[in-house]
């Protein structure tokens, strides 16, 4: 390769990659959104205390749970249709490819720590519902405890007063009330009232997904050994149908890590994202040689071709610490701390 061509290759790769300009590869912490305290907690663990990537992710996500980041992480936020808050979380070890996850977990506040316990002390990948809570408590986590808060119950009460609008129901009667609901095609048209005839189709109301009701902390860490881990924590979509599980605890959707390649984290409309496994796609694209920026953009474009109104985002990092993001439907921000930074830096990605 000529020196000129080599120089052009390096410049092109730099343009697609690390916007932070750090010369050191790791340790590195990356998180969705300006969750600076979560990134600082992970950084203290991996940089100051030489913790493993897995333990650093747990510390970072746990900090976000305690702070109730955006009201969509940890206890006390995102009530479901019954006014209850439940927790989804996942941790992935990019060295062993082990995964631990909990979904629709009740009565236990520590989502990410419960997910780690699943990984450490079972041969399973995911535990769900009240049985996940029983397991977590048996392994030493505090509980049972009420995961609702004054704020979440107030939000739920107001939503009920507004006839439970908007919600995630579709093709049901009655569409403008709090139920009980019946399948649209099961309703006898001869018994429909005037108000039923004039109801607005719930599918015409549009999405009510935004950062403050559909958010996740997704975090990836490269530790001092170059090992990579990723994890997530969320209390799910606000006013979700009880029992709903989004992409938060799904490896390959909300997050994915492979020490040989890199990692990815995602946030947004999990019901759509989990159909595409965008973080698995990002990592596999990087495995084939794509730079993080192109890999992130490609994963998002695969979703938007099928769902043009989709709202979501991903960040991507490769094993060399190069990072980038991509989004659709909103402006996305992700947070980074690397050796060349004095503190956490927030990067903005435009749709």
Task: Please give a structural write-up.
Belongs to the Ntn-hydrolase family. Residues 1-17 form the signal peptide. It comes from Cinchona calisaya. The protein has helices at residues 3-16, 36-48, 53-67, 111-121, 129-138, 150-161, 194-197, 270-273, 278-287, 292-304, and strands at 28-32, 87-93, 99-105, 126-128, 172-173, 182-183, 217-222, 228-234, 255-258, 262-268, 312-318, 323-328, 332-337, 345-349. It has 351 residues and is an alpha+beta fold. It has an eight-stranded mixed sheet. The protein has a four-stranded antiparallel sheet with strand order 9-10-11-12, covered by helices on one side. Helix 3 (53-67) packs antiparallel against helix 4 (111-121), helix 4 (111-121) packs across helix 5 and helix 9 packs across helix 10 (292-304). The protein starts with a helix and ends with a strand.
């Amino acid at each position: 390769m000529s020196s000129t061509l080599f120089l052009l290759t390096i410049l092109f790769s730099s343009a697609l990659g690390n916007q932070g300009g750090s010369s050191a590869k790791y340790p590195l912490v990356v998180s969705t959104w300006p969750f600076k305290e979560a990134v600082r907690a992970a950084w203290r663990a991996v940089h100051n205390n030489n913790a493993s990537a897995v333990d650093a992710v747990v510390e970072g996500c746990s900090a976000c749970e305690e702070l109730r980041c955006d009201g969509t992480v940890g206890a006390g936020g995102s009530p479901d249709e019954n006014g209850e808050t439940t927790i989804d979380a996942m941790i992935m070890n990019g060295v062993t490819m082990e995964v631990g996850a909990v979904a629709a977990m009740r009565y236990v506040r520590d989502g990410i720590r419960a997910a780690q316990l699943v990984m450490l002390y079972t041969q399973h990948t995911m535990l769900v519902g009240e049985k996940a809570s029983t397991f977590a408590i048996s392994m030493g986590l505090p509980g049972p405890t009420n995961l609702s808060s004054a704020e979440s119950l107030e939000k739920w009460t107001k939503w009920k007063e507004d006839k439970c609008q908007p919600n995630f129901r579709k093709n049901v009667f009655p569409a403008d009330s709090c139920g009980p609901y019946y399948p649209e095609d099961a309703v006898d048209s001869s018994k429909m009232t005037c108000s039923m005839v004039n109801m607005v189709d719930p599918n015409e109301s549009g999405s009510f997904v935004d950062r403050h009701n559909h958010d996740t902390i997704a975090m990836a860490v490269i530790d001092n050994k170059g090992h990579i881990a990723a994890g997530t924590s969320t209390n799910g979509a606000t006013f979700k149908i009880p029992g709903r599980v989004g992409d938060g605890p799904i490896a390959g959707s909300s997050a994915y890590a492979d020490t040989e390649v890199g990692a990815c984290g995602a946030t947004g409309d999990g019901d759509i994202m989990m159909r595409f496994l965008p973080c698995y796609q990002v990592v596999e694209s990087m495995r084939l040689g794509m730079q993080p920026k192109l890999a992130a953009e490609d994963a998002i474009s695969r979703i938007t071709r099928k769902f043009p109104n989709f709202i979501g985002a991903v960040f991507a990092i490769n094993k060399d610490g190069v990072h980038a993001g991509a989004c659709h439907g909103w402006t996305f921000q992700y947070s980074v701390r690397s050796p060349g930074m004095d503190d956490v830096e927030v990067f903005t990605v435009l749709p």
